[in-house]
């Protein structure tokens, strides 16, 4: 447990492997190992150990909680719901399980139920920042931007360095055309969590809406550094470069996207438009033809 908390998952798993050999039916060892494997991103192994844990201790809410966390990562959403409902049946005041259940229901598009589960978590712990943030997400998904803003601000009031809530608030403020404030919270998000790609993407978007294209470019270039495999991020950079009339650089970014998504007609249409603006008419015609052939 201590090693897990220190982020030393490999050592934690090795220690739990030894413990499991000594006591193979000890549920606490099994559900801790399930969690350690989950933290290490080894979700199939986590699921396997999680199933052992609930078999060894079917009345353990922690075992059901961790099994749910494993299966949700494997896109077994309905089973995750069942696992967390079982955990809550065993321990109705388990705020963490209520919040997890709210998350997966939101992912399934069951927003009203998700809202109800968030409120359950907050009845148990009114200052539970993850539940406050998640409730904001549910409101955002429903287009209730002022309501979303309220919940994000409550989360931030309880945890001022909560990068995810600042990022989400940035988005909610953009929907309300309050771009100056959106930029401020986007900057907070990237400051508190420098490796947060989505925050740089949203910060860039807010800056574009303010007309600060140079700063928008800096933000989206940082997102590309953090997530070079993302076609969408390269597309965003291309859009910013077009705003600066950097047609050659925009074409380079779109060529990267073409390699990532060679079967996407929309990439070729966008690339052709850039080539046309750059005066490369023959290249633009060839690119359009590729898109036509796909359709």
Describe this structure in words.
- α6 runs antiparallel to α7 and α11 runs antiparallel to α12.
- It is globular and about 70 Å long.
- The chain is mostly helical and 295 residues long.
- Helix content is 80%, strand content 0%.
Write down how many β-strands occur, each being a DSSP E stretch of 2 or more residues: 0
- Unreliable stretches, pLDDT < 50, 5 or more residues? none
The N- and C-terminal alpha carbons lie at a distance of 55 Å
Number of helices: 18
Question: Which short descriptors sum up this protein?
Answer:
295 residues; mainly alpha; globular
Question: Concise description?
Answer:
By secondary structure, this protein is an all-alpha fold. It has 18 helices and no strands. 80% of the residues lie in helices and 0% in strands.
Please outline the helices and strands.
Layout: H1 2-5, H2 9-22, H3 27-39, H4 43-56, H5 61-73, H6 77-90, H7 95-107, H8 111-124, H9 129-141, H10 145-158, H11 163-175, H12 179-192, H13 197-210, H14 213-226, H15 231-243, H16 247-260, H17 265-277, H18 281-294
Helix pairs in contact: 2-3, 3-4, 3-5, 4-5, 5-6, 6-7, 7-8, 7-9, 8-9, 9-10, 9-11, 10-11, 11-12, 11-13, 12-13, 13-14, 14-15, 15-16, 16-17, 17-18
């Amino acid at each position: 447990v201590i090693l897990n908390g220190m982020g030393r998952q490999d050592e934690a798993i090795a220690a739990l492997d030894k413990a499991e050999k000594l006591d193979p039916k000890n549920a606490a060892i099994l559900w801790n190992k399930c969690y350690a494997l989950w933290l290490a991103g080894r979700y199939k192994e986590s699921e396997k150990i999680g199933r052992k844990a609930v078999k060894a201790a079917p009345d353990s809410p922690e075992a059901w909680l961790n099994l749910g966390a494993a299966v949700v990562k494997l896109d077994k959403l309905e089973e995750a719901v069942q696992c967390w409902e079982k955990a809550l049946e065993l321990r109705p005041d388990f705020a963490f399980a209520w919040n997890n259940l709210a998350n997966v229901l939101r992912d399934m598009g069951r927003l009203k139920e998700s809202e109800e589960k968030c409120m359950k978590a907050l009845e148990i712990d009114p200052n539970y920042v993850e539940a406050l943030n998640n409730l904001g997400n549910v409101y955002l998904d429903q287009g209730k931007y002022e309501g979303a803003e309220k919940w994000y601000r409550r989360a931030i009031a309880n945890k001022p360095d909560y990068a995810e809530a600042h990022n989400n608030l940035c988005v909610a403020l953009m929907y309300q055309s309050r771009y100056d404030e959106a930029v401020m919270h986007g900057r907070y998000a990237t400051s508190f969590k420098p490796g947060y790609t989505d925050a740089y993407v949203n910060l860039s978007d807010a800056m574009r809406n303010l007309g600060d294209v140079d700063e928008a470019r800096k933000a989206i270039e940082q997102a590309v550094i953090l997530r070079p495999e993302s076609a969408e991020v390269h597309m965003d950079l291309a859009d910013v470069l077009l705003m600066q009339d950097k047609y050659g650089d925009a074409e380079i970014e779109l060529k990267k996207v073409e390699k990532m998504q060679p079967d996407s007609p929309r990439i070729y249409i966008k690339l052709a438009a850039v080539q046309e603006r750059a005066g490369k008419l023959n290249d633009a015609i060839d690119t359009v033809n590729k898109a036509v052939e796909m359709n």
